[in-house]
Amino acid sequence: MTDTPPLLSIDNLAIGQGDNAPIVERIRFTVARGETVGLVGESGCGKSMTALATMGLLPGSLRVRAGEIRLDGAPIHALSQRKLRHLRGPSMSMIYQEPLTALNPVMTVGAQIREVLTTHLGLSRAKAHARAIELLTLTRIPDPAARMGQYPHQMSGGMRQRVVIAIAIACQPSLLIADEPTTALDVTVQAQILRLLKQLQTEQNLGLLLITHDLGVVRQVADRIVVMYAGSVVEEGDTDTVLDNPAHPYTAGLIAARPKGSRTEGAGRLADIPGSVPAPENRPTGCVFRDRCAIGQAICEGRRPLLTAHAGHSVRCHFPLSAASLASEVPS
Amino acid sequence: MNPVLRTDHLKVHHDTARGTLKAVDGIDLSIAEGETLGLVGESGCGKSTLARCIVGISRPTDGSIAIQGVSGGRGRAARLDRAQTVQMIFQDPSGALNPRLRVDRIIREPLDVNNVGDRSERRDKALKIAREVGLSDYHLDRMPHELSGGQRQRVSIARALALNPKLLVCDEAVSALDVSVQAQVLNLLVDLQKDLGLSYLFISHDLAVVRYVSHRIAVMYMGRIVEIGPAEDVWRGRLHPYTRALTASIPDEAARRDTGELLEGDVPSPVSPPSGCAFRTRCRFARQQCAAERPELRRVGTHEVACHFAETISD
Amino acid sequence: MTRSFETLRRLAHHPSGFVGLMLIALVLGMAVSANLLFPDGPWAMAGPPRLAPGSDPRFPLGTDTFGRDLLSAIFYGSRVSLMVGVSAALVSIALGILVGAVAGYFGGWVDDALMRLTDAFQTVPNFLLSIAIVGIIGASLSTITFAIAIVAWPMIARLVRADVLRLRTYDFVQSCKIIGMSDMRIIFQQILPNCMAPVIVTTSVLVANAIIVEASLAFLGLGDPNVMSWGTILNAGRQELRGASWITISPAIALVLTVLSLNLIGDALNDVLNPRLKERT
User: Which PROSITE patterns did the record assign (chain B) (predicted)?
Assistant: First the structure.
């Protein structure tokens, strides 16, 4: 243990709108420098809201209602928009799912990268131009100098996402949040972009918070995994430990629901999770997963389980699965 | 016996300002009764255009489509005939349902349009199908926006099944759904196939899903099929370098592994495709013959592949 | 049915919608009660000419140069304004929807031909075209309505076409083709109900515009000579602007309030039918 605080620490975070049911409740996790954390969950679990809250970009009337977000130990959840603006870019940055809408269609990509450099770092035009080419080289875009003069619509989806990444790392942030960065891309391009993110992270010692619904992406890229369900963290720990031996029935269900093998060679029915994710106002009392859980009992209704350590990772369940019980539960 | 679907030299070419875009460039395939043909390929490879041709909302520029041995004509009568045999399920379950109509009306509409039985028969039939796909009377009275994504996709499936078609074209039918709901819908599709003897053309970018549901798999690249055969033979004994690259790119869920050689670059512009083999610009095995001569699909072992060097290359 | 009732309810709870609805109800009330309150009609020379408002309790708004009761004229004028406004708006909406929907749905040469026609109408200054039409075929309520509608439909056509272009790519429209639905049924039953919101919002503006054009035509002496419209009073009062300004002031106020109320309703409808737009601002 060292005294240096983690790069990003989220503690007891709750996000909601007015007095409505909170969208995110008592979230807690950290991202260290040079570490990739995979934030996993289905739509509506609150993973994107958590990311937006960190960036200070919560939409509409959503607010941080409780808890803390700390960047390098300094609380940032209560900062003014003006102060947050100075953090976005140089300290933390974000890339989105759809690279086309993240770029300005009427500006060349070169101009868009230069703009970030001149406004945030105060570089001269010539220096910004040179640095922009450097950034495009860093993101492995072939023939970067020629690409500078192109418009986003002249590029493929993969190239656009590289430009978005170049802009995101332009001011050398220490934290990069990637919200489904490869979901809109083809698998061959996804593999390229994931490799690029991993390389950049190592080279720049970035803390990478990777938000995704794809367990395969997490398995390949993330050091640690945080599984969210219905606004709560239900399981958290080392990626391989959690995915090999999930302790929360929801994590186990997610893994089992993915098709493995071929039906023509005897792969059986998929183990689906009955029902669907409840809306924030319809979440059950006690454990949020209990109405879809196969092993739920009376206590799950009465008392909300705490995030507790279990065989090397943390799990929010009264009856965490052990490796042995899992083997009988989920046929491989 | 006639296959449920058969296409011969199917082509869809669009004239654009920059030249002819060959979206679909000579596709021959057939689907037997009760069979699922999985179709994979990257965006822009022409798989959606092919699907639109088969259901009749795009017109092929050349070649023919026969459904249960019958080639569709043009005009309203052909449209109604085709509706009875082939239907489609779309990717986005919210865009596929008219937001202003109630669910029961959405499911009943195909019956109304085709004048099946009288009013009460149609209502009964709609209710019966709704139950088959796991919806209840409660859902029938709702508007689409009141349902979850999975329920909406069930409504789409019920609507597609109303006319008892033989073939369902599923264009990314489960891609927009959450994993847990995706499994529910996949199970439903598999059950329906068993109960009703349906055939599926199952298009998806998710190779794990395609592998799971398909009896046979076809791999498309730039408007052409580059490999086709029994699912596990294509998956395990993949011969075409593109199929290899595609399967190697999937992030493995079971174990961390090195991805090794990745496919470089992007799909070339379909308006000016490379000479010879369209894949040669990204292929690390490409040789001179690949630029000179376009490889045709040919039988190698249990499946067919369009590569000059399918037998000699290895990873 | 329940949806239009719901829209009306929310409109009444919207501040500018409420004011607009109250004002337009007042004008409607005037139109309905005109022949009950003034059985002699607006043309009767009921009193001394050029009577100022307030000088005789029988004529609260005074009389014009022929001694006709101005209050009666305003009441009867509201009938003309509303009738011309609403019917011109309905005709232009029907035309605009037809052209826009067919052009947007079928695309190709149909779209090209119809949109060039639309352009042709839009390049001619609207008011001049209306004047020309009335001047050529003569002034009557129906020709005036026609002259106003024929210049107003291109706006609706463009609006509807843009929406249909967007909606025709939606999967639910594709799905209707796949189940064998006819094109006309797809357009009118499936697509159009989904693009009525902007048309409804524009309707109130169209009605207001039609009322102004009708009044302007009448002011220029191109009104239907057999009906008393607000424009007719304005025209009559024009020469007396110095001596008897009240003759022009009262119909002008009536016009302004009616047009204002319709614009208020339009704004409110915009908020009510597009709740998301309001949230963002």
Answer: ABC_TRANSPORTER_1 (PS00211), ABC_TRANSPORTER_2 (PS50893)
Chain A nearest-CA distance from B293, in A, is: 26
Would residue B90 count as lying in a domain?
no
Looking at B144, B164, B184, the residue that finishes a domain is B164
DSSP string, A209-239: EEEES-HHHHHHH-SEEEEEETTEEEEEEEH
What kind of architecture, by CATH, is found in domain C80-264? Orthogonal Bundle (1.10)
> What is the percentage of chain B residues whose pLDDT exceeds 70?
98
* Residues in CB range of A307: below 8 A, 6 or more apart: A28, A233, A236, A314, A315, A316
Nearest-CA distance B207 → chain A (Å):
9
Mean pLDDT confidence for C231-253: 88
Shortest Cα distance from B285 to chain C (angstroms)? Answer: 41
Q: Are A124 and A17 part of one and the same domain?
A: no
B91 part of a folded domain: no
Domain containing A21: what range?
Answer: 1-91+174-245
Nearest to A271 among B151, B183, B262 (CB): B183
Q: Could you give the 3-state DSSP secondary structure of residue B315? A: coil
Q: What is the pLDDT of residue C243?
A: 82
In a domain, B235, yes or no: yes
Determine whether the interchain pair A264/B179 forms a contact, defined as Cβ–Cβ distance below 8 Å.
no
Residue A155 pLDDT level (bands cut at 50, 70, 90):
confident
- Of A150-159, B164-173, C268-277, least confident by mean pLDDT is C268-277
Measured between CB atoms, which of A213, A219, A262 is closest to B231?
Answer: A262
The rounded mean pLDDT for chain C is: 90
Residue C104 pLDDT > 90: yes
| Long-range Cβ contact pairs of C115-118 (< 8 A, separation 24 or more) | C115/C161, C118/C154, C118/C157, C118/C158
Measure the CA–CA gap between A176 and A221, rounded to whole angstroms: 14
A-facing residues of B in 106-125 (CB < 8 A) are none
Confidence at residue B259, expressed as pLDDT on a 0 to 100 scale: 63
Are A118 and A165 contained in the same domain?
Answer: yes
B230: three-class secondary structure by DSSP:
strand
User: Does residue A87 share a domain with residue A131?
Assistant: no
Answer yes or no: do A154 and A185 share one domain: no
Comparing CB atoms, the residue among A216, A257, A270 nearest residue B251 is A216
The closest alpha carbon to C234, from C89, C87, C85, C80, belongs to: C80
Label residue C281 by pLDDT band (50, 70, 90): very low
Q: What is the pLDDT of residue C275?
A: 59
Domain boundary (B126, B147, B164) is at B164
What's the pLDDT at C67? Answer: 85
Does C179 touch chain B if contact means CB atoms closer than 8 Å?
Answer: yes
Contact between chains at B180 and A263 (C-beta distance less than 8 A): no
Q: What are the structural domain ranges in chain C?
A: 80-264
In chain B, whose CA is at the least distance from the CA of C170? B95
Domain carrying residue B32: 5-85+165-313
pTM of the predicted structure, to 2 decimals? 0.87
